[in-house]
Amino acid sequence: YSYAQPHVEYSQAFEEPGDGWNKILQLKNGNTFYFHFTKKNGIDVTVFDKSRNVISNKTLTSELWDPTAMKSSSVEGLYEISGQPVLFLHQSPDHTPTLYRIVLDPMTGDIVKENRIGHIEKEKAKVVFSGLGIGVRYGGRESSDFHVEKDPYSDCYAVAYFNGMAEDASDKIKVLHYDGQHKKISAAYYGSPNDAFKYLHYIGMTVEGDKYVHVCTYGFNSKKENGTASRLLVSKLSKGDYVFTHKILDFSEDFRDTRAVMKYNQGTGMIQLLTLTYEKSKHGSSY
Fold first, then answer.
1. Integer Cα distance of 278 and 136 in angstroms
2. Residues 1-44 pLDDT 10s
3. How far apart are CA 135 and CA 202, in angstroms?
4. 254 pLDDT band (50/70/90 cuts)?
5. Which residues partner with 225 through β-bridges?
6. H or E segment at 128?
7. Which phi and psi (to 5°) does residue 30 adopt?
8. DSSP collapsed to 3 states, 62-118
9. Which of 207, 199, 173 lies closest to 77 in space, CA to CA?
10. Is the per-residue pLDDT at 106 higher than 50?
11. CA distances from 70 to 45, 144, 180, 247, 281 (A)
């Protein structure tokens, strides 16, 4: 066996923040973005050049999203898209799940463009659509949250919402497919095939360029219903389409509490799905 000696480079030392949380993104041009999300003072951004020297340092604030509510915010995606850092920020003003897209300058860290992708109404749980979301517990149902996945081989990406308050399974999930200029390629609701399942749980999603978005869900029915046994579904949204095509897999285990990584392998042309499922046992949770 032979091993290469890794070449390690260091930036200037800086004081680590005592609160909040951090994310790092390295761009193809060699610049590195260090994000520090404060509790209530916006987002601190430090930009390092390819020589690891600081070239910009600033705090991002906005009148569109709330910089004082960072403690209750979450980042649903942080990617380089068309050479620019793009941050997908989830906040819930007035308990209304809302997703924001923030595009930054790759040299200065300034906000180039920001917009609200979409939100779900708090009262009626009706999707007011220019964008999306996916679930947490809320009054016995799943509430709404957002998932964003980017194709590693291109600048295309997809956003999915799960409306946990929707009564109809066909209204729970909607997916939008975007190109690298943030223009919509496709949009579709994700419905249960032939209404076989009353309940759908999102598991994972992957993007195949501007051609397809693949989504994996777990479909099941309650014990009171005599519907189809629970199954995993892998579904595809093709470019320009408004409906999904479904493939039902022969798995009937309980996948309701599942985390997953779903990727398209460009070399093999196959979709790879790695799941972590939590199951209840007599001695507590196991996986």
1. 15
2. 566 667 777 887 878 888 889 999 999 999 999 999 999 999 99
3. 8
4. low
5. none
6. strand 127-128
7. 100, -15
8. CCCCCHHHHHHCEEEEEEEECCEEEEEEEECHHHCCEEEEEEECCCCCCEEEEEEEE
9. 207
10. yes
11. 14, 18, 27, 39, 36
Q: Can you tell me the distance from the alpha carbon of 8 to that of 52, in angstroms, rounded to the nearest whole number?
A: 11
Taking a C-beta distance cutoff of 8 angstroms, is the pair 70, 82 a contact? no
User: Is the pLDDT reported for residue 145 higher than 80?
Assistant: no
> Strand, helix or coil at 171?
helix
CB count in 10 Å sphere of residue 220: 21
Please give the mean pLDDT across all residues of the chain. 83
Where does residue 198 fall: left (phi above 0), alpha (psi -120 to 50 degrees), or beta otherwise? Answer: alpha
Q: How far apart are CA 128 and CA 166, in angstroms?
A: 13
Mean pLDDT across 175-204: 90
Q: From the CB of residue 222, how many other CB atoms can be counted at a distance below 10 Å?
A: 8
pLDDT of residue 172: 73
Residue for token digits 């409906």? 243
What pLDDT was estimated at residue 4?
65
Of the pLDDT bands very low, low, confident and very high (cuts 50, 70, 90), residue 213 is very high
CB 42 within 8 A of CB 70: yes
Angle made by CA atoms 279, 281, 286, in degrees to the nearest 5: 45
Q: Enumerate the H helices of 115-171 as residue ranges.
A: none
3-state secondary structure of 169: helix
